[in-house]
From TrEMBL, chain B:
It holds the Pfam family ABC2_membrane. PROSITE patterns: ABC_TM2. PANTHER family: INNER MEMBRANE TRANSPORT PERMEASE YADH-RELATED (PTHR43332), TRANSPORT PERMEASE PROTEIN (PTHR43332:SF1). Residues 19-248 form the ABC transmembrane type-2 domain. This is Transport permease protein. It comes from the Bacteria. Belongs to the ABC-2 integral membrane protein family. Keywords: Cell membrane, Membrane, Transmembrane, Transmembrane helix, Transport.
Amino acid sequence: MPTIVDIQNLRKSYAGGFEALKGVNLQIEQGEILALLGSNGAGKTTLISTICGITTATSGKVTVGGHDIKDDFRAARSMIGLVPQEINLEPFERVLNTVRFSRGLFGRPADEAVLEKILRQLSLWDKKDSQIRELSGGMKRRVLIAKALSHDPKVLFLDEPTAGVDVELRKDMWEIVAGLKASGVTIILTTHYIEEAEAIADRIGVIAKGELLLVEEKDALMARMGKKQLEVQLTEPITEVPLALQSPDVELSADGRSLIYTYDTNAERTGITKLLSKVAESGLVLQDVATRQSSLEDIFVDLLKEDAA
Amino acid sequence: MNWTAIKAIYAFEMARFFRTITQSIISPVLSTSLYFVVFGAAIGSRIEEVEGVSYGAFIVPGLIMLSVITQSISNASFGIYFPKFIGTVYELLSAPINFFEIVIGYVGAAATKALFIGTIILITAFFFVDITIQHPIAMVAFLILTCISFALMGFIIGIWAGNFEQLQLVPLLIVTPLVFLGGSFYSISMLPPVWQVISHFNPVVYLISGFRWAFFGSADVPILTSLAAIALFTALCLGVIWWIFRTGWRLRA
C-alpha cells in the first residue's frame, strides 16, 4: 500500500522546555486503520494536532498525499478530516447547519445530497433540524464525525473517539469506523483502550513520552510479543512445585491445584511435551489442561516497562 | 482565495444575527429614541443651534457613530472569541484557509451587522428631527470605513481576550469614553482651549467630525485629516492582525 501520510522527524517543544514530540517518524499507509496507543499525556493529541494544523511543529516534515502541511497547506488539509477528543460544538446550532458550515469551510461547494448521505450514514438524518444541545453524548460525537466527513476527506483522524462512551456506543463507533475503512478512508485513531486497538486496528503504534516506541501489524505484534500460558490442573493439590519441574517458567497457583507454565509461542521448542512428561514422572495426576494467550494489554504494559527500564 | 470558506463563515455569522433579529433591532431603536427624547426634545429645546444646526439634528451623526463603533467591536470580538471559548476554533485552524480569509469572513459579517444597525438608527432619526444629508456618498463611505476598521479592532480584542471579562474590558474602559469624549454630543470648539488640544489626541474625534461634515458640511477638523485618521487606524489594525497571523498568537500553540 502506498504511504498517504509521511511524518519525518517531527518535534514539538513548548516554551517551558517541555518536549511533547521527540522526533517522531511514521508512515501511514493508504486505506489502513492505525491505532496510536498511549497513556494520557504521551503525545497522541499533539501528534494529531500538529498534522492537522492546530499546533505548529518545532521541526520536522509532514506530508499528506504528497502535499507538505506547511508549504502546501490547502491541498494537505483538504484531504484531512479531524474528529477532536472534546465535544466542541455550538450548543444552539442545528445539526444540518453545522455540517453544512464545515463543508463550506473546507472550500467545497454546497451539496445537499452529500450532506444527506453523510447524515444518513451516521443515523443523524432524523435529527438534522435538532439543536446540538438536545442531542445525547453519542449523537454529538456522530455530529463531530459528520462534520469531519463533510468535505470527503481521504484521511480521518479520530482523537479518542470512544473516551467516556458506554460499551454499546463503543461497539457502534467501531462499526462506523469499519464502514469508513470499507469506503476507502484511511483512519488514524488514538486510544488508551487497548481492546479498541485490538478490535479494529490493522497496525498499532505505541507512543510514550513523545516517542513512538514501535509501529507494527497488529497480528504480527501479538504473535511476536505474545506469550502463551499452559495451565495444568491437578486432581490433588500440592504445596510446592516438585523438584523435577522447578524452573522460572513454572509457577504454582495459590490454591495449589494447578501449575502454570509460561512459554514463547515463537520458540522452536515450546517445552510442553517435556513438561507434561515431567509432570507424569513426578507422580502428579492431570485433571485438565488449558492454554491462554496474552492480550495486547499485556504486551503494552510490557513495552512501557521496557521503556522505563 | 478560498471564497467558499469566506462565504461559509460570513453566512454562519449572519445567521446568528438574524436568529436574534428582534433584539438586534429593538435595542438600538429604543436607545436612540430615548436619546432623541431626552437630548433632542427635552434638553435640546433649551440649547441653541450648534454650527447652524438644531441640537437634535446635530447629535444624529454622533449617535450613529456611538452605536456603530460599539456594535462593530462587540460583534467582531464575540464572533471570534466564542469559537475559542467553546472549542470550535479547531475547525478554523485545521481548514484549508488562511488567516486573512478568516478575518474577511468574521470582520465582514461584524461590519455588515453594524452597518445594518447604523442604517436603522438613521431611519429612526428621521422620525424625530429634520435632517438633510449634504454629502450622501461621503456619509456612506465613512459609515462603511468605520464599521470595517472597528470590526478589525474588535477581532483583535476577541483574539486577545482570555475570558468574558477581558472581552468587555476594552470596549468599556477605552472605547466608550473615547466615543463620548469624541464629540458625539458637542462640538470640540465648545470646549475650553486645553481640552480642545487634548481632544485632538482622541482618534474618534476625527471620525465623528468627518461623519458630521458629510451630514452638515461643517466639521471640527478638515475632512482630509479625518480621512487620513481613519486610514491610519485601519492600517494599524491590519498591521496587528498581520502580526497575529504571522505568529499564531493566542490561536496556535
